Amino acid sequence: MRKNIVAGNWKMNLNYSDAQRLMYQLLEYKKNNKTNCEVFIAPPSLYLTMAKDLFENGEIAIFAQDVSEHNSGAFTGEISVDMIHSIGINGSLVSHSERRLYHGETDSNANIKIKNLLNKNLTPIYCNGENLEQRKNGDYLEVVGNQTKTALFTLSAEEIKKVIIAYEPVWAIGTGETATADQAQEVHAFIRDLIASKYGKETADEISILYGGSVKPDNAKEIFSKPDVDGGLIGGAALKIDDFSKIIEGFN
Ligand code: PGA
């Protein structure tokens, strides 16, 4: 079911007390404000239990930032799908561009992680997007198309409907350089058409496609107004309650 979503990716930020403070601020905000979108956060894995306990009524859905593609075993430093499932986490980001860049993650890895999450009834937020060179060369649609096919096209129609996609052009992440609303719309519509060409329009229309890359309070509303943009995956601006809440209000 296609939903409007604002998701905060905290990345490797905030110590315990800062993370706790931000979670309390979010809880307070959700209690006092009716939002026209669903709100997710992806805190560092160390704080997932705290988040789950605090948002016990599901006011905000809690996501991991990554999961291992293995189920268990000698994989030091990793966390498994089964672990996040066992503490009631809603899902995980998959193949964020920083995982691709610093950890060599590929769309084939993403495909395995997505299937493992779906097998446990958890929601994958699959991230893709081109780099600056690919944007400049004009290859970006081909790049995003190939990423999407490799990561998702072995899924059944029922499965792909449960995936959230986050289009995040690498050149716009953490750079202050945002794709224009029209640039985002172009790629989002392309991804949706690609999915429709394999799974049918009805299936493609059910999938939420988020935009990520320097979304801020002053550009969120315009980006979210585009027909194929169903929300945002927010990095830096998710770390301050004032900014994050204004982005959420981009749907008002
Ligand atoms: P940013 O990050 O909003 O800081 O650009 C977005 C992301 O990486 O998900």
Please sum up the structure shown.
The protein is of the alpha/beta class and about 250 residues long.
Q: Would you give an account of this structure?
A:
By secondary structure, the protein is an alpha/beta fold. The chain has one domain: Alpha-Beta Barrel (TIM Barrel), CATH 3.20.20.70. Helix content is 45%, strand content 14%. It contains twelve helices and eight strands. It has helices spanning 16-32, 48-54, 81-86, 97-103, 107-119, 132-137, 140-152, 157-160, 181-199, 201-205, 217-224, 241-248; strands spanning 5-9, 38-42, 61-64, 91-94, 123-128, 164-167, 209-212, 231-234. The protein has an eight-stranded parallel beta barrel with strand order 1-2-3-4-5-6-7-8, surrounded by six helices. Helix 1 links the parallel strand 1 (5-9) and strand 2 (38-42). Helix 5 crosses helix 7, helix 7 (140-152) packs across helix 9 and helix 11 packs parallel to helix 12. It starts with a strand and ends with a helix. Bound molecules: 2-phosphoglycolic acid.
